[in-house]
Specification:
Chain lengths: 470, 395
């Protein structure tokens, strides 16, 4: 099930809201149980057979968390973490990477069959969440959760279950036991959810049609290749950040506070800055659980480079079992190393506009790598972008520009922190009207967006979330 | 004020979702979506396999989407905005121009050699059928008619394909093969051009020709059969034998329909009235029905579709005029036969029609072998010329 579906919006969510808020706040356990039951049902809608896999993951992390608890000897605690890592990553490895590595082995030794494994939705996300819990217990950053239902709720909580953000146990541990649902929080969460829904339904799905056409074109013109690359750049941002917005909004409606996952990444002036603003929960996860344990930057330059190489190769691989994703990760490794050790200072002395152009050009090219079916397709596509194409512009580029100009224009505006600028301007005015607009404006806008999103939702079937693959 | 707004937001959000849920469940529903011209999805079959794979949940989502509350107003709102606010060149797969509504086209994934090879197969099919018809003394004619996107191919914006290259190659290959195989072949494109390519021959808002286009097709087919086979088929001349009049009703062409009736023009459908009264009995799939060739609406406000002619697509129709001095005929093809049929019974003692898409009882070849009509006319539009599916393989 996806948030931008009639099943979720018209049936699942209202039923959950009614049941959840019918239970008095003092019965926290009952409210948590309702959330857990709905979360499991939410996941089961994607294929009930994988529900068992998620339950197994919960059991592994629960047991390993108990072993990693402070009352055990250090060796036992480490064994708990090791077991969680081996089992959790083992399941992830089998379900996500068996086919990929199997194909490589099959190419070398044709008598070895390629395993046909279906990727369970959200396995990368719930594996990382479970693992972070056990590691945090070992580090004494979190207390052992003895109630398996509460741990199950943390891992399976539906807003962030299938496409993130990757929520740390420490972020929500207290809120599982004691949180304060309020009209104010609910209202703010609903507004956030509806803005996310609109980003997905009105922007991401529309520009996806341009990207799909451009990337499947046999010989795109230069203009079509660029249009497609830019469209995909917008699509992936508005698709993924929309999901995060909806997750954060839903969490807030039920009294949970997830950390932000995006911070206007396309205003970045360097690739380093881009990664401080893009998929923050993933980059901080790798920083805290891989990069720093490897030694981070408190080591020799060579070791630091090796650490970064490992982190970015793994980041690429996390996104998918394909050479394009590994190449995508290593592309950022090279750029980040370059900015850190080679051209970072020179870059910072350039005019701001040039810095933006530099960052966006490299980010757009990275998305070409990310989107293409394989490396050679990505290189062909990039070649078309830089002139190796049958024409500078063709009729398809004109058509897509004319057909989707409203969405492209809106994407340009919505990718910039216009909302923040407006809020700041209104706050500065500090008049009765500006205060009124600040209070009423977002709510009215979100309700209008709900109407528009519903119209698009019931009239279209083009609706997949990109990050469901991961 | 902040507190009131928060309460209002919380209540409105929850209330809207609850109302949508209740309305989706409770509002009366129709299985058929008129504007989309399709049956909406049925409740999915629930099996252990479909549940375990999650397929049933995907099917349910399709069902919920189809039956979501106020879906048609939502469709209209989106279409209206696309037409009037964003002024998109293509809305609901319809190319919107000032004068005409056209289908959005994609170039078929066929190489030139594929097209020629397919044209050869189609010509061979028709040659075999003609041979079969002629073997018992019958007469065969294959008529190719331009569909709307071909008739108005110059109206497409330059940045959208009008499939003209494919159409030209398809026609030249088929004409060459039909001539090589000796098939009695009539291409209405050049005929329409010779008459000045008047806009009233093809609908501006529908895939089909207008009744005047069908009338000229009927005339050309009769002339071809009379000329090639020395027949003496009668034909109703306009003004003396037949008069055309426009119905006042709005015309909901297939493109207008795709745009939910939000864009169209004042195009009207015509009916023909023969000066001579020709009583007939009509059987649809061998059930006797009213003796009419026009499905006339109850009121003048009711929108008409191309289904006006012969009441739409019917697998098999038989019209008996009980004039034994005249010949019998079989007209087959797809919906392009309908408008011709509403006129052509004038020339025959008995006229049957078979819709290749709906008639599944036997092949056309077997049908002809059993019926042995004097005249067999196949009518295919340019889009379907190379199609051999849906009984189009003929034998």
């Amino acid at each position: 099930m996806v948030f931008s579906s009639v099943s979720f919006l018209v049936f699942f969510l209202p039923c959950l809201l009614v049941l959840y808020f019918m239970v008095p706040r003092r019965y926290r356990g009952a409210r948590n149980f309702i959330l857990l039951a709905f979360s499991l049902a939410f996941y089961a809608c994607g294929g009930p057979k994988f529900l068992l896999l998620m339950l197994l993951s919960i059991v592994i992390n629960y047991c390993c968390g108990l072993l990693a608890g402070a009352k055990h000897r250090p060796a036992v605690r480490k064994a708990g973490v090791t077991l969680a890592a081996v089992l959790g990553l083992g399941l992830l490895g089998w379900f996500k990477y068996a086919g990929f590595f199997g194909e490589m082995l099959h190419a070398l030794m044709p008598f070895i069959p390629v395993p046909q494994v279906t990727l369970p939705i959200g396995i990368s996300f719930f594996t990382f969440q479970g693992l972070s819990y056990v590691i945090d217990v070992l580090r004494d950053a979190a207390a052992v959760q003895k109630n398996p239902l509460k741990l199950a709720l943390y891992i399976s909580f539906f807003p962030q279950l299938v496409a993130g953000p990757i929520v740390r146990y420490t972020t929500v541990a207290d809120e599982i036991d004691e949180r304060h649902e309020s009209v104010s929080e609910f209202s703010a969460g609903a507004v956030r959810f509806l803005f996310g829904l609109a980003k997905k339904m009105l922007l991401a799905n529309a520009v996806a049609q341009i990207a799909d056409a451009a990337f499947s074109a046999v010989s795109p013109s230069v203009a079509l290749a660029w249009l497609g690359a830019v469209a995909y750049t917008f699509q992936i941002y508005f698709d993924f950040s929309a999901y995060s917005d909806m997750a954060i909004g839903l969490g807030r409606m039920f009294g949970f506070h997830f950390l932000e996952n995006f911070n206007y990444p396309y205003v970045s002036r360097s690739v380093t800055e881009f990664w401080r603003r893009w998929h923050i929960s993933l980059s901080t996860w790798f920083r805290d659980y891989v990069y720093i344990p490897l030694g981070g930057n408190r080591c020799s330059r060579a070791r630091n480079i090796l650490n970064l190489f490992l982190v970015w190769a793994l980041t690429g691989l996390w996104h998918g079992a394909s050479w394009t994703f590994i190449a995508w990760g290593l592309w950022f490794f090279v750029l980040l190393i370059g900015e850190k050790f080679l051209w970072g200072k020179a870059l910072s002395r350039l005019p701001s506009l040039l810095q933006h152009v530099y960052a966006m050009l490299l980010v757009i090219l990275s998305w070409v790598l990310f989107r293409a079916d394989d490396i050679s397709a990505a290189l062909c596509y990039m070649a078309a972008m830089f002139g190796r194409a049958p024409a500078l512009c063709d009729s398809r580029a004109v058509y897509y520009a004319l057909e989707f100009w409203p969405e492209l224009l809106l994407c340009c505006i919505a990718a910039l922190p216009v909302k923040n600028l407006l809020e700041t301007a209104l706050e500065k005015r500090n008049s009765k009207l500006s205060r009124g607009i600040l209070i009423v404006g977002p709510k009215l806008a979100s309700l209008a967006l709900l109407a528009l999103s519903y119209c698009r939702l019931v009239t279209g079937s083009f609706n997949p979330f990109i990050y469901f693959r991961f | 004020m902040k507190r009131i707004c928060e309460w209002a937001m919380a209540l409105l959000f929850s209330g809207v979702l609850l109302i949508l849920m209740a309305a989706t469940i409770l509002l009366p529903k129709s299985r058929y979506s008129y504007y989309e011209n399709r049956n909406l999805s049925a409740f999915p079959e629930i099996t252990a396999e479909s549940v375990l794979s999650g397929q049933v949940f995907d099917d349910l989502e399709t069902l919920f989407c189809d039956y979501a509350a106020w879906r048609t107003p939502a469709l209209k709102a989106v279409t209206w905005a696309d037409l009037n606010v964003f002024r998109r060149p293509v809305v609901n797969e319809t190319v919107v121009t000032d004068d005409v509504l056209l289908p959005q086209l994609y170039d078929p994934a066929m190489s030139d050699d594929d097209i020629r090879a397919q044209a050869k197969l189609v010509a061979e099919d028709n040659a075999a059928l003609q041979k079969q018809v002629e073997s018992y003394g019958g007469h065969y004619c294959y008529v190719a008619v331009p569909c709307q996107y071909v008739y108005y191919e110059d109206s497409y914006p330059a940045y959208l394909t009008n499939r003209s290259r494919y159409t030209d190659l398809e026609l030249s290959a088929l004409t060459e093969e039909m001539n090589a195989q000796g098939v009695c072949f009539l291409d209405m494109g050049p005929v329409f051009d010779s008459l000045g390519h008047p806009p009233e021959f093809s609908s501006r808002v529908d895939n089909h020709y207008g009744l005047l286009g069908a009338y000229e097709t009927y005339r050309a087919a009769v002339q071809k059969l009379n000329g090639d086979y020395g027949l003496a088929l009668s034909f109703p001349e306009e003004g003396t034998d037949v008069t055309f009049s426009a119905l006042p009703n709005p015309y909901m062409g297939s493109r207008t329909r795709k745009l939910l009736g939000l864009r169209g023009d004042d195009e009207k459908l015509l009916t023909a009235a023969f000066r001579e009264d020709i009583p007939f009995t009509r059987l649809d799939n061998w059930q006797e029905v009213a003796s009419a060739v026009y499905a006339l609406p109850a009121t003048e406000d009711e929108a008409l579709t191309y289904g006006l002619y012969m009441g739409g697509d019917i697998a098999e129709t038989c019209i008996r005029t009980d004039r034994s001095s005249l010949l019998t005929a079989l007209i087959f093809g797809d919906s392009f036969t309908n408008a011709v049929e509403s006129l052509a019974y004038y020339s025959f003692d008995e006229m049957r029609s078979v819709d290749l898409r709906h008639y599944k009882t036997q092949s056309i070849s077997d049908y002809i072998a059993a019926y042995q009509p004097d005249v067999v006319i196949c009518i295919r539009d340019y889009e379907a010329l190379l199609s051999r599916s849906d009984n189009g393989g003929l034998s």
